[in-house]
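Example record for the data management plan.
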Amino acid sequence: IFLVIASFSDPGIIRRFPSEKVQEERKHIKINQLGYLREYRYCSTCSIIRPNRSTHCGDCNNCVERFDHHCPWIGNCAGKRNYKYFYIFLVLLNILTVFIGAFCIVYIAKYVHDKVNENKKAPVGEKLDHIGAVSLNKCIISIFVIIYCGLSMIFTTGLIIYHTRLVSNNMTTKEELKKFFVNPFGNPYKRGCCQNWSNVLCPRKNKKSLLDQLVWIKEKEN
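Corresponding structural encoding:
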């Protein structure tokens, strides 16, 4: 369910405007907000001035608010509005992998245990000498599933740990990989662990984007 929601939900696509409305705003805008100089860049493809932490995704051909990354597994961007669904999907996927692997182990253990009990109760001439070989033939699919789950957990667990660290620090994958906040001032969006989780997984819905306000001011002046 969360895979489908993350795939088909809006990641935070910023509404496009006709290019003539922002032709004079092509220069990057820098605004001092709470002592931090934020830069708003102009996107020539979407003809908009995108807010800080937003990026134009070449795969989706849209500017996405608080862009984290474009995920090929969900076929969609992970952004401000659907990142929480992506994160929950990762957690549940890891739980499912553990669940399947654990029950395969329980199945093999129970099968071997039952065969051992049957072998003890069987007459001397009918006892099996190679219980392990018989169990291996009967449980070969479960063994492959356990190996597959083990290899999958390396990937899923690593992703969960990585994204948990990002959420705790209120960072995106792009900001982490490009080292945006390697400076004396650090990450300006970091507000403590609890507040970071709240901001990332329960983001506020903006009533008006910065572009809406700029166009409104520009039209009012004209």
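Summary line stored alongside the record: The chain is about 50% helix and 15% strand.
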